[in-house]
Amino acid sequence: MTIKTLPGAPEGRPCAGISSQLQPRAMDRWNAGVRAAANDEGDRSISVYDVIGYDYWTGDGVTAKRVAAALRSMGAGPVTVNINSPGGDMFEGLAIYNLLREHDGEVTVKVLGLAASAASIIAMAGDTVEISRAGFLMIHNAWVMAVGNRNDLAEVAATLKPFDDAMASIYAARTGADQKAMSKLMDAETWIGGQAAIDDGFADSLLPSDQVEKGSGKASASAARRIEAGLRASGMPKSEAMRLISEFKSSSGDPAGGGEGDPTEHGQQAVAQPSEADIAAALRSFTL
């Protein structure tokens, strides 16, 4: 038996015309928004500047997968979500909404221009929602393409109702309004401007750049949401935090005075209102 001489590996002959270096612009085109969040420690923001869901025409779109990746790369802590989107896929919008609600940290949503349709659902996920003075929310019922006879179309209409109810419940939870009232707004395909969104409870305040003067200091739903965020940050489950806030309100009355007028008009001494920190401390004491 003879030992055969096997061919060896050819010696490398570098070619000046071939380079293995990856061009920077190639990396920039690969999910640039997620990379920005992962690489820039000072940037804890997510930009929603496109349709919601994957856009098969352009390959763009804001998906739950991409938002989840951005949140993982940033880790626990506060995050800002900037929105200017016409909406899109309802289920992607609901998934992104839940991702933001479950995030371990305070979420601030800024509606820079438009948060329509599915994007308006995402906007409701913020612990604090800011909207530009010239910004808009648009809410409506779910859309679908359907073909068939009257029986087929009636079945499609019945199928869509639970989806509309789910969206209405999110708006109702955010605003504190009745779910039926939200359904009527959705039926009418309602456009809600910046100040109206604040007045109706969809948003907490204008963007800082749009705030010309301070408010009157009256208690609002935003205070309760900020207290909830603080309690959740301390490790308390959301359901327990909401229960304590409800108990505190019922036991102490309306911190804003319940619209009873100026107590000095009846010879009563005005009492300073408790700060949010005082309220949060009182709520924590309920668990002792």
UniProtKB/TrEMBL annotation:
A GO MF term: peptidase activity
Region labeled Disordered — which residues?
A: 249-273
Sorted keywords for this record are:
Cytoplasm, Hydrolase, Protease, Serine protease
Q: Does Hydrolase count among this protein's keywords?
A: yes
Q: Which PANTHER family match?
A: ATP-DEPENDENT CLP PROTEASE PROTEOLYTIC SUBUNIT
Q: Which domain of life is it from?
A: Bacteria
Q: Which CDD domains match?
A: S14_ClpP_1 (cd07016)
* Entry similarity comment: Belongs to the peptidase S14 family.
- The protein's organism comes out as Luteibacter jiangsuensis
Q: Which GO terms describe its biological process?
A: proteolysis
Keyword Phosphoprotein carried by entry = no
Looking up SUPFAM superfamilies in the UniProt record yields: ClpP/crotonase
- Coiled-coil stretches are none
- InterPro entries documented for this protein: ClpP, ClpP/crotonase-like_dom_sf, ClpP/TepA
Protein name as it appears in the record: ATP-dependent Clp protease proteolytic subunit
